[in-house]
Design a protein that fits this description.
alpha+beta; Thrombin, subunit H; Aspartate Aminotransferase, domain 2; Aspartate Aminotransferase, domain 1; 3 domains; seven-stranded mixed beta sheet; six-stranded antiparallel beta barrel; 23% strand; binds 4'-deoxy-4'-aminopyridoxal-5'-phosphate
């Protein structure tokens, strides 16, 4: 960020810190303000714009020195306030040594972190002797976001998730109905009467909780039935269920990939895949999003360096809603003798015949080695699973730590997933309605002129740009009564923050019309 064009800071200015530069012979003057990006110095000296100097900021109050490389961006600026008056210059930090970054944040944080000037990524990996230091900085950032009405995370819902939900309006403190565009309950099965009934009956029979790991005393007939039905639905020999989709990815990859092996995954992959790779002890590489040539290039580069190879892709990419180029990826997997795993968390129940998923959509049943799925999206409850050959699934049951060291899904959840699966198979009108709504929304967005990212599914995203615009756009949209996902850095690159919307079978045309109009106005306004 350019120091000269910086937004006017609302926080108390950091005055009185002594600023030195050995490069230009010592003392420069006292600070009029300091941020993560630079310092304004009240100084008799006039250094030329563009001069690069080594700086030392000396805070005797905090007993710390901060060193940085700076560039003079402006000189001859007039400063005047209650205690100081005179001329000075604006120096931008072009490099701050890691060890000093935390001290600088500490200094700023003692004042207040102005959330307009930071993003969540600034609070990762701040080196400090105190592990909790970063939590205090991040807390201050989040509180400032809250105070400005930017923070929409953990919105408190007061009703079940449908096309519209009740929330507490932060301004009026009254219950307000808003349109929900952040739900992955694509078919509306969370509230389906058959799902509720099955869950109630199972709760009566089994109670809540399964009390033990699946390999020990935690597997009921419902778990067996769920695994069998999922395997049949997806055309695989066997399925293993995990307490969450996150654990399914982690548990599968970490058990199969060993230290001499390579996992290679798409740059837009879900965090659980990366964590699985880290846990595996094997190596991993990332190929550019859906870039077949890049995948092929990396595989040929590492062909001899590693033994087993696993390619991991998503069926439906959860960020923008685009589909994996599966036929091409399969071709490459065959060419290099790599196994292929598809995370189809957002494809199952949405894509393919009767919602059988993205692999089925491409007519590639029997050709993919592993499909991972979630029970928390179209299946409307909680849990994850992996489908593969009977040998692979047996191996996972005995060698996947997130499976055998965690308690099994509660039986009522297994009953709920079973009922949801039954509905997907017998009520195709829900998937039809989902696609009708999806196409309607896409058409309306296109007509309105809102530029959205390439989507082939009910997931839509709009790139908003830098973080402050995202904060303002999303605040406006929420205030107008529409919930959208706010996706900041580091989930996406710094200048490509997004808002994300998900269409469900439950939405009415009038809901979608309103959403398009509000998004259009927000982007127009900011
Ligand atoms: N994979 C993808 C692509 C996802 O979007 C998610 C959920 N955000 C997961 C895995 C994890 O699934 P779960 O929420 O069931 O843990």
């Amino acid at each position: 960020m350019n120091l000269v064009n910086r937004r006017k800071s609302e926080r108390k200015k950091l005055e009185g810190i002594e600023v030195y530069s050995r490069t230009v012979g010592g003392y420069l003057g006292k600070s009029m303000d300091i941020s993560l990006f630079g310092v304004f110095v009240l100084s008799e000296r006039e250094l030329p714009v563009g001069a690069k100097i080594l700086l030392e900021l000396n805070s005797s109050k905090n007993n710390s020195i901060i060193k940085a490389l700076g560039e003079v961006k402006r000189n001859n600026i007039s400063f005047a306030n209650d205690s100081h008056q005179g001329k000075g210059m604006g120096i931008e930090f072009i490099h701050i040594y890691e060890v000093y970054k935390s001290r600088l944040l500490e200094l700023i944080n003692k004042n207040w972190v102005n959330s307009d000037e930071y993003n969540l990524g600034d609070f990762f990996n701040i080196p400090s002797d105190d592990l909790f230091f970063k939590t205090e900085s991040a807390f201050s950032y989040l509180k400032d976001m809250e105070a400005k009405g930017y923070n929409r995370y953990r919105t408190m819902l007061l009703s079940s998730v449908k096309n519209r939900v009740n929330v507490l309006d932060q301004k009026t403190n009254k219950v307000k109905e808003i349109i929900m565009m952040g739900s992955s309950d694509y078919l509306g099965l969370i509230n389906h009467p058959k799902v509720k009934d099955a869950t109630k009956i199972a709760t009566e029979k089994y109670g809540m909780g399964s009390s033990s790991a699946p390999l020990l005393a935690g597997t009921s007939d419902l778990h067996y039935e769920l695994e069998e039905k999922l395997a049949k639905f997806l055309n695989f020999e066997e399925v293993i269920i995990f307490p969450t989709g996150y654990m399914a990815n982690m548990g599968c990859i970490s058990a199969l990939v060993d230290k001499d092996d390579l996992t290679i995954f798409d740059s837009a992959i879900h965090a659980s895949v990366l964590d699985g790779c880290k846990l595996s002890g094997g190596s991993f590489r990332i190929f550019k999003h859906s870039d077949i040539r890049n995948l092929s290039m990396l595989l040929s580069k590492y062909q001899d360096k590693f033994k087993g190879k696993l390619i991991v892709v998503e069926g439906v990419y959860s960020m923008d809603g685009d589909l994996v180029p599966l036929p091409d990826i399969l071709g490459i997997a065959k060419e290099f003798g790599a196994r292929i795993m598809v995370d189809d968390a957002h494809g199952i129940g949405v894509m393919g015949k009767n919602g059988q998923g993205t692999v089925n959509h491409f007519g590639l049943d029997d050709q993919v080695d592993i499909v991972m799925g979630s029970l928390s999206k179209s299946l409307g409850c909680l849990g994850g699973f992996v489908a593969s050959s009977k040998e692979v699934i047996h191996y996972l049951r005995y060698f996947s730590k997130p499976y055998f060291y965690a308690v099994n899904l509660p039986p009522p959840i297994a009953a709920s997933a079973l009922a949801a699966l039954g509905i997907i198979e017998t009520e195709p009108k829900l998937i039809k309605q989902l696609w009708k709504n999806t196409n309607y929304f896409k058409e309306k967005l296109t007509i309105s002129g809102v530029e959205f990212n390439h989507s082939e599914t009910p997931i839509f995203s709009v790139t908003v740009g830098e973080e402050l615009r995202l904060k303002k756009v999303s605040k406006y949209i929420h205030e107008q009564g529409v919930y959208v996902d706010t996706i900041p850095y580091p989930a996406v690159p710094n200048d490509k923050t997004r808002i994300r919307m998900r269409v469900t079978a439950m939405h009415k045309k009038s809901d979608l019309d309103e959403v398009v109009s509000v998004i259009h106005d927000a982007l127009d306004k900011y």
